[in-house]
Please model this.
Amino acid sequence: MKQEKVFAQLEQKGVSRRDFLKFCSFVSATMGLAPSMTPKVAEALTAPQRPPVVWLSFSECTGCPESLLRTTYPWIDELLLEIISLDYSETVMAASGQAAEDALHATVKKHPGKFICVVDGAIPTAENGVYGMINGKTMIEIAKEICPKALANICIGTCSSFGGVAAAKPNPTGAKDLESALGPALTTPVVKIPGCPPNGINLVATIVNFLLFGKLPDLDAKKRPLFAYGKTIHDTCPRRSHYEMGEFVTEFGSKEAALGYCLFQLGCKGPETYNNCAIVKWNDGTSWPVQAGHPCIGCSEPDFWDKMSPFYKSL
Amino acid sequence: MAQRIVVDPITRIEGHLRIEVEVGDGKVKNAWSSSTLFRGLEIILQGRDPRDAWLFTQRACGVCTYVHALASVRCVDNAVGVTVPDNARLIRNLLMGAQFLHDHIVHFYHLHALDWVDVVSSLKADPKKAAALADQVSPAGGNVNEFKAVKARVKKFVDSGQLGLFNNGYWGHPAYKLPPEVNLIAVKHYLDALRQQARTARMHAVFGAKNPHLQSLVVGGVTCVADLNADRIAEFKYLWKETMDFVNNVYIPDVVAVAGFYKDWGKIGGTTNFLAYGEFPQSAKEPESLLFPRGAVFKRKISNVQPVDINLIEEHVKRSWYEGDKALNPAAGETKPKYESLDVNNRYSWMKAPRYNGEPMEVGPLARVLIAYGKGHAPTKKAVDGLLKALKVPQEALFSTLGRTAARALETKIIGEAMEGWMGQLVENLKKGDTKTYQPYEMPAQASGVGLNDVPRGALGHWIEIKDQKIGNYQLVVPSTWNLGPRCAGDKPGPVEEALMGTPVADPKRPVEILRTVHSFDPCIACGVHVIDPQTNEVYKFKVV
Model:
């Protein structure tokens, strides 16, 4: 599709060329693509057949779907109406009960091996999974039925990626991340976008990568996209120079805190946490935890609830 | 003949909920509410650093993302005996206010509206008529080109054959009463609200780092001292003003306009008793200084608001998946999970059934508004009387699905207006050179604390026992347990179960009417299920029978 045609189509939808290009540049930048790729990103986002997406919510708090709702490049309404076809999501879908179940199964049947499956929440496995049931089925049964039929599974959030809060000690419900819960039954590719919750932009960028190149982005050993999880918070932190100078905050609300000194001694887990919070920031670049004077708690790392706590104790 | 309907999953809520009803003669005769997910957060908290508790409890819910954070730091503040500085109180109030603005807008448009608004019908609307109608109902008026564009956008979406999140909705159901033009206005505002909520959530990021799951609280205060500058306050104020314009020009006019077509729902979905802990401390004095007062109302007697005694709270387990049938106060509760099977004649939920003085109590916007009204809170009285007059309905109409949804809109405006005062006080403090945001404290070896809050979905209490400077016991009694819990030992239905009785159901295969009443409570379930034994601190081996 030619670029002009793309813009004409967009303007029909009431999306200005300027806004859309701004968004495409932002996504390209998040993904670490050259600016020359921006028109290709635009093209990928306006394909006539929108890719079907089903979103399965298991043992979770809905923070991950909420995080996606905060996306502003593109706006969430554009994502839902013009970019993807969100065929199942308990959080936002109109249908309930059997009608919702029917929608899920219709998509899986119609697009076998072709739909994207997004999973948030851990999967309770103790006592045959009775701690999480939807429509009479355990969450583990649902995952076993749906995930192997997807083109790819995107684990959004630390719970589906690594177990998360439900799996924190003593893990009363035997909660597991998707890969561990399904084991060899999961034959389709997995990408993990951890964070509690993760920044919505990282999910959007992963989907765009997929639409653009027809494949998942490059991943690290923990299956996290390198474009977002390639560097530590510490290495990208604007307060890094204070660390090097030995300028630390030792009490909240202090003069040093007001001056924006390094939070390492108050327990910042930035040196051991791989994420791009310091670069892309949150909510349209408004802020992020260290900017708000709070130590990083390492929320995108495996087992951070146990390994990174007590959170106010320095590494 | 009576017919059973099961709606599972209930979507457009937080968490996992199943509703079963028995329908006869076109009406709900009986109802059972089941929570079908158990996470055990309170077990996970045991033995940890009390300062960390709020980060864990916050993960009870990513929708009401701030409320379990605030409830927890208040609870631990109370246990360690620290009074937070005035600036910290103001910042905490502002973040809580922003939570209400965000939550209620999202609830009305994205979680509730599709029960009243037929998206497909909007395609039959005349954009000119829609714009003329918008001129009548909203101070901001309507723009015909915008309505044309939205209609074209929806048409293109429907024509694509990929209905996505609107697939399998109950479109065309006879219970949908809005004319196509009102549907088009509502669909436009559904889309506008998707963008507005992202901007409103930025208020949280300004002083709270990010949303969801803010990260600027600590026991003793807040951490965002570097953000207490003119730039940030102006940014917050701009986002607040934009949100209030939306509330005044879009949200409230829409609620009034839609309610006008559904006045019969002013007689459906009511409950009997109401409880509010109250919220927004205007000084260090609680509960005296709370903007929304603390109180309890029995048998709908709002002229007789009773004081609240937390010792009268008991949690029942007779109909829940726990051992035994003892009803105990949260401070002395015991809980032994034991899943059998989902049997509405026996045990059918992971939620316990909280009762106050033995009675089920509705909590949330309607409870807060009724109690504030009963106590003569002037802004609430003005808002409620104005609404009743505009809709030409009697005061009894408040005790209903419609009343609950309207109360939510009214309190959004009242809270939003109060926020302006808190911003002003913050500026005054800073002008005087008071930049204090944190009060240091010593962690006691042994202590106990409680934090009472009123959050978008209702009364929320956190209780902590500190032992050897660690969490010995942590307990949450949350709004959705009050509203959506099962029957108690005395067999009294919970509020949503009571509210559903008598609800008309035109087509048992497409029970949109059930969704209306269930969604009017804004269910938020993930926080509702938890386990603790403060006596032994034992982590139970869960049994499946």
Q: What stands out?
A: Chain A touches chain B through 96 residues (CB under 8 Å).
